[in-house]
Write a structure and sequence with these properties.
A hairpin with a 3-residue loop joins β7 and β8 (about 100-105). The protein has helices at about 15-20, 110-120, and strands at about 10-15, 30-35, 40-45, 50-55, 60-70, 75-80, 90-95, 100-105. Helices cover about 15% and strands about 45% of the residues. It has two helices and eight strands; from the N terminus they run βαβββββββα. The chain has one domain (about 5-120): Bacterial Pleckstrin homology domain (PH-domain like, Roll), CATH 2.30.29.50. The chain has an eight-stranded mixed sheet with strand order 5-4-3-2-1-8-7-6. With about 120 residues, it is mainly beta.
């Protein structure tokens, strides 16, 4: 489970490694928008939800998958990259759970992700 007290993730970089691992969790008609990975953890954005991958243990063979449906997001904030600051950020607020922040580096489909969140949470 996401540690909502530690509200942040290491810098995530576009990487399809976890897209393959969460494929078995997808619903009929659900497709992957994009996938990102930090040193060990990651997040996969689908057309219906975020699936956060929390790698556990020394070997990393144990993984926790947390599903956050877009419909459960009560508010969100997107910060796009700029000329000198190439990082972008996404903060999502979930009722009764708290806030989680994702920081991205490099190429990120942050605007497309924001559209999917808006379509499903508004």
């Amino acid at each position: 489970m996401i540690d909502f007290n530690n509200k942040g993730f290491f810098k995530l970089k576009q990487n399809r490694d976890y897209a393959d691992q969460v494929a078995a969790l997808l619903l009929d008609g659900e497709t992957i928008i994009d996938a990102y990975k930090s040193m060990r953890d990651g997040v996969v954005f689908t057309t219906k939800r975020l699936i956060v991958v929390n790698v556990q243990g020394i070997t990393g063979s144990k993984k926790d998958f947390t599903s956050i449906p877009y419909k459960n997001i009560v508010a969100y904030s997107v910060e796009t990259s700029g000329t000198f600051d190439l990082d972008s950020e996404l903060e999502i607020y979930l009722s009764a759970v708290g806030k989680v922040k994702f920081e991205f580096t490099g190429k990120t489909a942050i605007v497309e992700i924001a559209k999917y969140i808006a379509q499903h949470s508004l």
